[in-house]
Amino acid sequence: MKKISIIFFFFILPLAFADLQLGFYASSCRKAESIVQKVVQKRFNRDKSITAALLRMHFHDCFVRGCDASLLIDSTKNNTSEKQTGANASVRGYDLIDDVKEAIEAACPSTVSCSDIIALATRDVVALSGGPKYNVPTGRRDGLVSNSVDANILPGPGSPIPQLTQFFAAKGITTEEMVTLLGAHTVGVAHCGFFSGRLSSVTGRPDPTMDPALDAKLVKLCKSNSNGAAFLDQNTSFVVDNAFYKQILLKKGIMQIDQQLALDKSTSTFVSNFASNGDKFVKSFASAMIKLGKVGVLVGKEGEIRKNCRAFNKRN
Ligand code: HEM
Ligand SMILES: *[C@@H]1O[C@H](CO)[C@@H](O)[C@H](O)[C@H]1NC(C)=O
Ligand SMILES: *[C@@H]1O[C@H](CO)[C@@H](O)[C@H](O)[C@H]1NC(C)=O
Ligand SMILES: *[C@@H]1O[C@H](CO)[C@@H](O)[C@H](O)[C@H]1NC(C)=O
Ligand SMILES: *[C@@H]1O[C@H](CO)[C@@H](O)[C@H](O)[C@H]1NC(C)=O
What we know:
By secondary structure, this protein is mostly helical. It has helices spanning 2-16, 32-46, 50-65, 94-107, 114-128, 161-169, 175-182, 200-203, 212-224, 243-249, 256-263, 265-276, 278-292, and strands spanning 189-191, 229-231. The chain has 13 helices and two strands; from the N terminus they run αααααααβααβαααα. The termini are far apart.
């Protein structure tokens, strides 16, 4: 038994991640990472909400078919792609990826994958937003398949924690890492449709797991605009920090899954630890993001390097 697990850890695990390496483009496209950084910085200067957009995009891409940029493909006349579904839940930032890709193609045609661009751009924007600086191994290849139905596997904002845990475990992500990654809800927004089911205006009674002042505020927001949006972290809404965990301990989680993280026995200890120790969160977030970026990647001769992130390359 022991022998088997040693074989697993030393041979099978590294093989699963083979060919992703730090600085994969060092000789083939020396400027790749600095081009990404430059375009991301420029966008961030005028739009701080790009951080949330990229974090959510990276997660949705990686958790559907692996980090293969299948999410970026546009639908065609007879075929709907992964982004074209209810579960795409307003993922945005596609135009930023287009901008980066255009700049990179001009410097090094057909060399840098769209999936690496998502991972690198997300890393850069996290660092710009007060989060950790971390290294992202590269060498991902772009997928050849994108189907709208595939995205239906993503859980919703009312999914129970045990179901979430199972979903993440199936991708090799532990419960603690899952709690860390959901800390990405320290930036960005949720639209009324994703949380209005918790509000007293809909249920007819206060939700004991929501701060009454927050309930009142959200009722007002969604009454004036049913497509309104609330910051997921009500305190430091644009900063990648541990404030999200402090907020949910104060019953200020916007979506049910966020609030449940603080209440469920299997996750509440991680929440308290991250809430009281910002350094621990920052370190964990860096390593969890690196792990997220390795889920189901294509490497070597698999897939392709797309020229346009929104369309598969033409076959002759
Ligand atoms: C499976 C667990 C998760 C569920 C059910 C979930 C669900 C949601 C929902 C419903 C929204 C609101 C979208 C909208 O109203 O436009 C949202 C926003 C967001 N999610 Fe998650 N999420 C999950 C995990 C994650 C993870 C792991 C990350 C990143 C590592 C992430 C990053 C974000 C970000 C940054 C936003 C804000 C997006 C924006 O402002 O554009 N989420 N999430
Ligand atoms: C859509 O049309 C293209 C080109 O006509 C074809 O190659 C492809 O197989 C079609 N896809 C589906 C899902 O029908
Ligand atoms: C997301 O899905 C909805 C519903 O299917 C669709 O109307 C919308 O255009 C999609 N968004 C993107 C960016 O494709
Ligand atoms: C279209 O359909 C095929 C399967 O018939 C799929 O492999 C392909 O990725 C789909 N998506 C798009 C956007 O073409
Ligand atoms: C809100 O953020 C500030 C820092 O900007 C911090 O000092 C304060 O303790 C936070 N409050 C809560 C309730 O998290």
